[in-house]
Design a protein that fits this description.
The chain is an alpha/beta fold. It contains 11 helices and 15 strands. It has helices at 6-15, 35-45, 52-56, 89-98, 169-177, 200-209, 225-231, 234-243, 255-265, 281-290, 294-311; strands at 2-4, 26-29, 49-51, 59-62, 65-69, 77-85, 106-114, 124-128, 133-135, 148-150, 188-196, 214-220, 249-252, 269-271, 276-278.
């Protein structure tokens, strides 16, 4: 699996910005995913930008106003941008929709990420990334989420405050009324949470209210919060259920738990704390060299050290 977050997207554009000629008059993004890189390119190239549909209607975005009409004589060289190319069908559809304008404009096409063999579908690309791949900006609508496990608190909804987490009336109120965070548009395979079984009905009520689609909901079968704290098996509980089926991804809110789930399962874990992907050992070594995980690993190592001291 290959993963790119918004920071990766920004960095590869900055690193290879020189591949884009400076004589483009207008940047045009392909909705929806292409709008993010189009905006970044317009910013760094200091050019106006718009989306395909607005462009076809003669509108661009200008400072202090939106969808302003432009003169056809004002822009001649156009760069059309999408985030990625896989099958290439979306880019071909875009080219077809703009074909009638080729006599008026010099139109070039760009994608940030392409799969091997599709490089010639565009005039400019920034990085070759094979399949399967996930992007931060569209992962919650990815068609393969049925092959994924999701945590609930810190992912689908906010975490409870210490005051709310009383294993009583306040917690029940939280479970029923927690503010949502990341609600996927696609169906989830299994929700794996450290919430207790006695909160299943309230949890299911919240999930239905927020239109969260899923196949299974796995909770901790323990009597109360004290028993859950004593067991202290959050990561083990999640990793066990992740490994129980041929799932390809776990989405977790805590980096500490993400590292532990990955260690046990040897499978990728996406952490919503910073939208970094924790891969298996070989990929982790690369990220360690880059320094991405060092603050979290220091914290994790200190916790392990303290536990070992208590066992002496």
């Amino acid at each position: 699996m290959y993963y790119r977050n918004i920071s990766d997207l920004n960095q590869v554009i900055l690193r290879r910005l020189s591949i884009i000629p400076r004589d483009f008059d207008l940047i045009v993004g392909i909705p929806r995913s292409g709008m993010l890189p189009a905006n970044l390119l317009a910013l760094y190239l200091n050019r106006p930008y718009t989306d395909i549909h607005s462009f076809l209607n003669g509108h661009i975005y200008k400072a202090g106003a939106r969808s302003q009409f432009f003169d056809l004589k004002e822009f001649k060289k156009i760069l059309v941008v999408d985030d990625s190319i896989a099958s290439g069908s979306a880019m071909e559809e875009c080219k077809t929709s703009l074909k009638h304008l080729e006599a008026q404009f010099a139109i070039s096409y760009c994608a940030v990420y392409v799969i091997p063999g599709k490089e010639k579908m565009v005039d400019y690309f920034f990085e070759v990334v094979p399949l399967p791949r996930y992007f931060q900006w569209n992962i919650f609508n990815h068609s393969t989420l049925e092959k994924a496990c999701f945590d609930i608190d810190g992912v689908l909804c906010v975490d409870p405050t210490p005051e709310q987490n009383d294993d009583g009336e306040k917690y029940m109120d939280f479970v029923l009324n927690a503010p949502p965070l990341f609600i996927p548009g696609s169906k989830i395979g299994t929700l794996v949470t450290s919430r207790l079984e006695k909160y299943r009905k309230a949890t299911e009520t919240w999930l239905a209210a927020h239109n969260v689609k899923y196949n299974d909901l796995v909770m901790l079968d323990l009597p109360d919060m004290a028993a859950r704290q004593k067991a202290n098996s959050h990561a083990e509980h999640k990793a066990k259920n992740y490994m129980a089926k041929p799932y390809v991804l776990f989405i977790e809110s805590s980096m500490e738990q993400a590292l532990e789930i990955n260690r046990i399962s040897k499978k990728p874990v996406l952490c919503t704390e910073n939208f970094e992907m924790v891969f298996e050992a070989e990929s982790m070594l690369y990220n360690l060299k880059s320094g991405k995980y060092l603050p979290f690993l220091r914290k994790y190592a200190l916790k392990v050290r303290n536990k070992l001291r208590k066992l002496k």
